[in-house]
């Protein structure tokens, strides 16, 4: 059997969820959209369900997968509904719903629901993607309430630059939010992972941690709170071939690496078809039998090559950690010009193996 696989440590997932709660002192919706950032949404939800205040996904399709697996906890649709007829399913499956546009309010007014909805009213406080305009926010709130179709409204917004600790934009967005919601007495949800980790002064009755649940930092620089996270995924494989090359010989497609000295090359069963970033350059960290070394040459579809020259005890069958508890996914992502969010979401073909019950 091909040795490539991703171990998913569910104890680490629970540890990170508890940290999000502890750091924020708030209730926390575990963001498990995009198949829990590649970690498997059903298993992650099952591992958290006994303690989680709820979950958040992007869309109804993702929510229904969880309901079909028996997840009964609250589930928030972060993009709400895309078409009015989804409201029937939202009603049937008891889903919470972000409302970010006027047409959605009109659809709710006209909907026939068996019971009132829990709505999260999203303000565009400066990210300028989705969300209601500040000038319309209070009107939207009153309109929703007057519809008689909602039982609860949570006031929410989303930060564009909370991962930049020195950036003033987060405070500016907060000020826009505070002004827009002035006088409304309702619960508030503002903080995603970087805001949970780095912006303790931002109020939030509900936090929405995503990337931190998976133990990866959203920051480019070292950050004290992020250092407390435990990586959840270990992407691992084995050395399946070894080559001894004299100086001057190239390795792999495009001869991107040419040996400067006699070089022992290890070939790993892992490639970009598994989601390992093709743009990871020579020098990207890799762990072989617990020892740090580097990727060399171009990543191929099913294989990549590593430098074993200074690791004489390693060889055929040696264990390779592409990222995990020692080689951080965020470091691999940065080397490849990406972010941990993307390299997790890109994972495919490798089996997910759950540990920690
Ligand atoms: C509205 C909303 N809240 C929370 C999150 C989670 O963000 P993070 O993974 O940075 O914690 C996302 C993710 O994109 C989001 O769109």
UniProtKB/TrEMBL annotation:
One of its GO terms (molecular function) is alanine racemase activity. Keywords: Isomerase, Pyridoxal phosphate. It comes from Ectopseudomonas toyotomiensis. InterPro entries: Ala_racemase, Ala_racemase/Decarboxylase_C, Ala_racemase_C, Ala_racemase_N, Ala_racemase_pyridoxalP-BS, PLP-binding_barrel. SUPFAM superfamilies: Alanine racemase C-terminal domain-like, PLP-binding barrel. One of its GO terms (biological process) is D-alanine biosynthetic process. The keyword Endoplasmic reticulum does not apply. Substrate binds at residues 129, 301. PROSITE patterns: ALANINE_RACEMASE. It catalyses: L-alanine = D-alanine. Residues 232-355 form the Alanine racemase C-terminal domain. Its EC number is 5.1.1.1. It is an enzyme of class 5 (isomerase). This is Alanine racemase. PANTHER family: ALANINE RACEMASE (PTHR30511), ALANINE RACEMASE, CATABOLIC-RELATED (PTHR30511:SF0). The modification N6-(pyridoxal phosphate)lysine is found at residue 33.
């Amino acid at each position: 059997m091909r040795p490539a696989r991703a171990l998913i440590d569910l104890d680490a997932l629970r540890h990170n969820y508890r940290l999000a709660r502890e750091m924020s002192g708030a209730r926390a919706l575990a963001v498990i959209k995009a198949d829990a950032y590649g970690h498997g949404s059903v298993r992650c939800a099952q591992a958290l369900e006994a303690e989680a205040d709820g979950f958040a996904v992007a869309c109804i399709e993702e929510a229904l997968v969880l309901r079909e697996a028996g997840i009964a906890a609250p589930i928030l649709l972060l993009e709400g509904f895309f078409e009015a007829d989804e409201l029937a399913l939202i009603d049937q499956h008891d889903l919470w719903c972000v409302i970010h546009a006027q047409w959605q309010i009109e659809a709710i007014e006209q909907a026939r629901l068996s019971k009132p909805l829990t709505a999260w009213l999203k303000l565009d406080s400066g990210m300028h993607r989705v969300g209601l305009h500040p000038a319309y926010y209070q009107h939207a709130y009153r309109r929703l309430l007057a519809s008689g179709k909602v039982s609860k409204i949570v006031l929410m917004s989303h930060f564009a630059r909370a991962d930049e600790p020195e950036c003033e934009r987060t405070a500016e967005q907060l000020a826009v939010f505070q002004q827009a919601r002035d006088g409304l007495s309702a619960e508030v949800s503002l903080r995603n992972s970087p805001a949970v980790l780095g912006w303790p002064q931002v109020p939030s009755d509900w936090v929405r941690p995503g990337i931190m649940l998976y133990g990866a930092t959203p920051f480019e620089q070292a950050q004290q709170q992020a250092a407390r996270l435990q990586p959840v995924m270990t992407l691992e494989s084995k050395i399946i071939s070894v080559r001894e090359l004299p100086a001057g010989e190239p390795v792999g497609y495009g001869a991107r690496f040419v040996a400067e000295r006699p070089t022992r090359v290890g070939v790993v069963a892992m490639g970009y078809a598994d989601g390992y970033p093709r743009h990871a350059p020579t020098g990207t960290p890799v762990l072989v039998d617990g020892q740090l070394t580097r990727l060399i040459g171009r990543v191929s579809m099913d294989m990549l090559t590593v430098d074993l020259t200074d690791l004489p005890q390693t060889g055929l069958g040696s264990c390779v950690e592409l990222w995990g508890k020692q080689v951080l996914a965020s470091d691999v992502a940065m080397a490849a010009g990406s972010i941990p969010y993307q390299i997790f979401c890109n994972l495919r073909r490798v089996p997910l193996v759950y540990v920690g019950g």
